[in-house]
Design goal:
Elements lengths: L4 H9 L5 H16 L4 E8 L6 E8 L7 E2 L3 H8 L3 E3 L18 E9 L2 E10 L7 H13 L12 E2 L1
Parallel strand pairs: 4-7
Antiparallel strand pairs: 1-2, 1-6, 2-3, 4-5, 5-6
């Protein structure tokens, strides 16, 4: 499905304030553009080095699980420091944390500050195959624009 990522840039460039303020603004801007493209939920999870759980930050649509363990997709993204594109969450088996049992695919993007991963942007969909590697690449770029991650070389997303 086509997602107009360049259209989101203007709102993300205008974000100001604390990291939490920018996360809230980014969640709103992304939701406004992505909710009609098969995205059922989006939000941020944060963690600190040494943590064994991630805490839910700003999100859109419905509340989600919090805290979550690092064994799920968000934790795998945070520890691997690479975006994850999960075409069908069923492949994750016991490692999948199902906040909404209708979710069928997921995309998770790591967020960095001075080389340290401090959190992730998480998107869910009720459709299998809703996300592709290009979605991860565009969201990585948009998080730089929103000043929620540093502009650093990235490896290709891990796809399941």
């Amino acid at each position: 499905m086509y997602r107009d990522y360049p259209r989101m840039e203007e709102r993300l460039r205008a974000l100001r304030g604390s990291r939490v303020d920018r996360m809230r603004g980014a969640a709103d801007a992304l939701w406004d553009q992505l909710a009609d493209t098969g995205v059922s939920w989006l939000g941020f999870y944060t963690a600190e080095p040494g943590d064994v759980e991630m805490i839910l930050g700003p999100c859109r649509n419905t509340p989600a699980c919090s805290p979550i363990g690092l064994h799920g997709a968000c934790g795998q993204c945070w520890t691997s420091r690479r975006s994850l594109v999960i075409h069908d969450v069923a492949v994750l088996g016991e490692g999948y944390i199902a906040c909404d049992p209708r979710d069928r695919s997921e995309l998770v993007v790591p967020l960095f500050d001075d080389g340290e991963c401090w959190g992730v942007l998480d998107l869910d969909s009720h459709e299998v195959g809703a996300f592709i590697a290009r979605d991860a690449e565009e969201l990585e770029r948009l998080m730089v624009i929103a000043k929620l991650t540093s502009d650093q070389p990235r490896e290709d997303p891990i796809e399941f």
